């Protein structure tokens, strides 16, 4: 978000006032749009003066100027609310801004402390509950938290949920000595028989658990019907949870999955500590803001929680903090850059450029690994903001709340799509969209259903599926072409009926209406299966997958993804955007890669996100744009050769913004870049925007890079791409990459060279190790291309089973026992270096007592004097480096 200020000295009513605003786009462009033909004097020293992940920063600053210094803010023309015009001077801004900036950043630091605390409390509750209640799985536990969070937000929204229902004092209204009275007597009625049921159709259950039926049922009667799917009952929702897990104060529990003893609290006890705000306007008050939860906050916490649950070890689970999340500044930049690229492609005339709202509502955006919904939610918010900016320019005023709500519905219905393989990630995305929608609702308890329109059913917009496995929807002919499924008119008409039926489901609210649509969907899928099998266009396995996929069941992932079948989109997306999962193929992750090994995009020792990028390009329409933030080593990594070739051959690189050593993700030590590609295989030669940070940097440097501001740590280039010369090559840019260019030009592998420098093991050691070192040394020599690699420095399971060695014996490495057994001389000890595995490396320190050692020499090592007491070396006995 960028701040700007300007003055219009020729307009009398604004004499002495500065307009202070914010924009996602160029400040110069925004000022020009607002100023029109009037004489505008900018304040260039102040543009882009603060780095923030929060909207409304301009309003916060205006209020700071008013409250701290007494500067007047002009009212709006309508007389309601305030404008952006503040009676102050440029010097006033220069004097006040440093104090405001310091206050703001201090607030952000305190905010992160609260985020980490909230995350730890939720995480500990999750592991405590699932550990002691074996019937409760991860999805059930997280689904309960999501529903309760939504209710706490509703409690703050004109008490749409009465506060008494979410308070420890509710136990006074329940029968005593009933372990499950709160879940069965209160929450099941709250979730399924109130918020998910129209007021005239409600029937309460488990009333015998209520000691005070009159008051409790009175609170139930005030609850509005919301719909939306978040409170649809699932198979396991009848499993109760004891009252202790809701209302307990601090307890100590040993949590097996974390291998720690932690403080745990009941989930209602945790959630009751915080305030809940749908927006964060006017929250400079430290006490109020510090303990406030908003949708952005929820996204951070749940993104971290999902990462923690997915971690492959207890050590890695403990490392995850509440900041495993794409920063809002980065998300904003990527969404805006992608939308600008889309509009540039679509808006070919001046009239088109003036009607961006229509174009934006025609855009189709997909996040193929949506996580907690950061990118889809921000895409909706930014599109909404741009449309509203255009409306203000045309008629001088923005949307009413009802207009905002309807416009958001259009954006969600027509523009935004998401996929994730984790059922709970989809649920969290739905929660964030519902929170965004209800912020534009003004409840009126005098009206039916509090004047609230039921929320849409977003199940059909965010699907739980495996993005990396496409459907085989065409039969290949001898000439290599394929007959597509939808070429058959009967099948095409049935698919259209199915699509129309699902579109009706988006705003369906009555239970019988929703059930009817689901039944029609099931019938059409069965009919379609028979038609496809009779036609013979696609395999029986594919028809079975299509027929059994239920779009209304998000509890388990589909084993495939197809945009035509799941979203009704045949010609591709305009934008594919996101932060795909980073996972290198290795021993632990081997099973994760197994389903993808038949993919044409699979490559040994690759990173999982490479496949997301390849499939993302396939999902684009011609001229569409892919924008990812991912690791920056793909340009030279040997495992990324398939990805590089696809990018070179199928796309036009528009922008690469490499952050160098700066770690965007605080909880993940990876170097990243933003990349923007346009699907285009026609342009053979072109230039593109390349930016890179170097040296030690902070977030402000990164924002300078993204906004192309002068910064001595940033490099801005426009390298030329010659497509035909880049296949199977590294992608290197700039004048200092000649070494990489030479390497990529050479076709010689290190394995092809005979290397005979190293260190000899004593003959006595060979004898006592059953002569096995000879063969292990040969293995080491043939794995030299890997360098330091844990799978080959020590005997792994594959080598052990093939050569009768013990797992863990050294090849390049030594255990402490082997090192002590050798009785090495001082010269030899100089060649032995401590070797740390990932388990011994913490976030800020390494464990002092390493268990492994590495024989480490440079290629120039030829000193064999230290070996004089041993027999002359045989070449095959050398350990090669």
Hey, roughly how much beta strand do the residues contain?
5-15%
Unreliable spans: 44-53, 282-287, 476-482, 735-785, 865-881
Q: State the total count of DSSP E strands.
A: 27
Number of H- or I-type helical stretches? 32
Task: Kindly describe this structure.
By secondary structure, the chain is α+β, with helices and mostly antiparallel strands. The protein contains 32 helices and 27 strands. β11, α17 and β12 (462-464) form a beta-alpha-beta unit. The longest helix is centred in the N-terminal third of the chain and has 43 residues, at 90-132.
In short:
The chain is α+β, with helices and mostly antiparallel strands and 881 residues long. 41% of the residues lie in helices and 13% in strands.
What is the secondary structure topology, with strand pairs?
Blueprint: E1 2-7, E2 18-23, H1 27-35, E3 41-42, H2 57-69, E4 73-75, E5 82-86, H3 90-132, H4 138-156, H5 181-195, H6 213-221, H7 244-247, E6 251-255, E7 260-264, H8 267-271, E8 275-276, H9 286-290, E9 292-293, H10 295-310, H11 314-319, H12 328-346, H13 350-354, H14 356-362, E10 365-367, H15 374-395, H16 401-414, E11 416-420, H17 423-438, E12 462-464, E13 474-476, E14 482-484, H18 489-505, H19 511-535, H20 540-548, H21 563-567, E15 573-578, H22 590-593, H23 608-618, E16 620-631, H24 641-650, E17 651-658, E18 672-679, E19 685-687, E20 689-693, H25 699-706, E21 714-717, E22 720-722, H26 738-745, E23 758-759, H27 763-768, H28 772-781, H29 790-793, H30 797-803, E24 813-815, H31 816-822, H32 826-829, E25 832-835, E26 852-855, E27 879-880
Parallel strand pairs: 8-9, 10-11, 10-15, 11-12, 15-16, 17-20
Antiparallel strand pairs: 1-2, 1-3, 2-5, 4-5, 6-7, 13-14, 16-18, 17-18, 19-22, 20-21, 23-27, 24-26, 25-26
